[in-house]
Amino acid sequence: MKLLVTGGAGFIGSNFIRYILRARPGVSVINLDKLTYAGNLENLAGLESHPRYSFIRGDICNRHLVSDIMSGGVDAVINFAAESHVDRSIMDASPFVETNVRGTQVLLDAAVAYWKERLNGRAAAGAERPVIFIQVSTDEVYGSLGPEGRFTEESPLKPSSPYSASKAAADLLALAYHRTHGLPVIVTRCSNNYGPYQFPEKLIPLMITNALEGRPLPVYGDGLNVRDWLHVEDHCRALELVLFRGRPGEIYNIGGHGERPNIEVVQMILRLLNKPESLIRFVKDRPGHDRRYAIDPSKITRELGWRPRYTFEEGLAETVEWYVKNRFWWERIKSGEYREYYMKMYGE
Ligand code: NAD
Ligand code: DAU
Prior knowledge:
Layout: E1 2-6, H1 11-23, E2 28-33, E3 53-57, H2 63-71, E4 76-79, H3 86-91, H4 94-119, E5 132-138, H5 162-181, E6 185-190, E7 193-194, H6 203-213, E8 217-220, E9 226-228, E10 230-231, H7 232-245, E11 251-254, E12 259-261, H8 262-273, E13 280-283, H9 298-304, H10 312-325, H11 327-334, H12 337-346
Helix pairs in contact: 1-7, 2-4, 4-5, 6-8
This protein binds nicotinamide-adenine-dinucleotide and 2'deoxy-thymidine-5'-diphospho-alpha-D-glucose.
């Protein structure tokens, strides 16, 4: 199976590529990534000469490039490519609409066109099999929960931020291509991921690296917003199952009952690093800040037998250790553009 993985130089995409090459000897990967501020080829260090891996630097919005890649032979597309940070979408929504919505449309168009071309017999054998399209989406499309309840696949879409609105739009486009063109699209909606190679603008790596540098830990609002944490490798295993056994046209929620208030996560990190709670600073809240996310994963568990392997305690301890051991990886990132952005946003 030949996979086109988009956004494979980012956090989850790079973890997925490493995982799938290890787990599935019959799978080869083409990684298409624009290398935005969040894309980093160091996340894939060691794979450069892997016989089943190749990298193309490019934009998913580039129709010609995407069609050319598909014409070379692709069995499935897994679309990770996105602008992914909520705070950035509040500053400027344009790149979010461009990549997350238009980019997804370009990929969907190319997948449909390539499938039809293969059906017309102009391309290689195996032509009757359509390209499987997995749209990697997020629980944020459902908006915010109160203190009770969980998101199911039937929960209404109520995105709060320009980021989540752009992801919801992409989900609807992808499902429409299934209904209209018969493309075997599957949408996955996962909760907050954490683990190695996560860009240090997101809560967990930001808090770990700030604590290691002895810098303040900025907690938005009252710190009682709840996120449902899942180790990135558990997300990757869920995507593997969806790829091989998921039902076209379906949505699968992915989450491991890892609900924690932000302040508790920050305190856990400080304890693991043996750093004082005096580093915590309560700062002004994120505009439109969703109060609580919680996923009901019973559909993917029932249909595909997926269950997370990591508890949050184990996964967080392992992740903290990774950031301690891989200082060279995050120090370069934090010394550059990220810091300017952060100063502008929160003045710390
Ligand atoms: P990330 O920001 O770490 O990585 C995004 C990658 O996409 C980067 O490598 C970037 O260079 C690439 N990219 C951006 N625009 C592109 C374009 N136009 N063309 C080609 N490549 C482009 O993001 P992530 O945290 O790894 O998230 C990956 C996907 O998973 C996203 O679609 C996100 O919405 C979704 N998701 C993330 C989480 C999470 O907790 N991080 C949870 C659920 C779903
Ligand atoms: O739920 C899935 C989503 O999780 C993904 O779709 C997004 O791509 C990903 O960025 C993430 O979104 P969040 O907004 O939940 O993640 P973030 O790490 O930005 O924030 C997590 C929580 O921590 C949120 O309640 C805001 C808070 N926070 C965040 C930062 C960066 C702070 O209190 N301080 C901070 O400095």
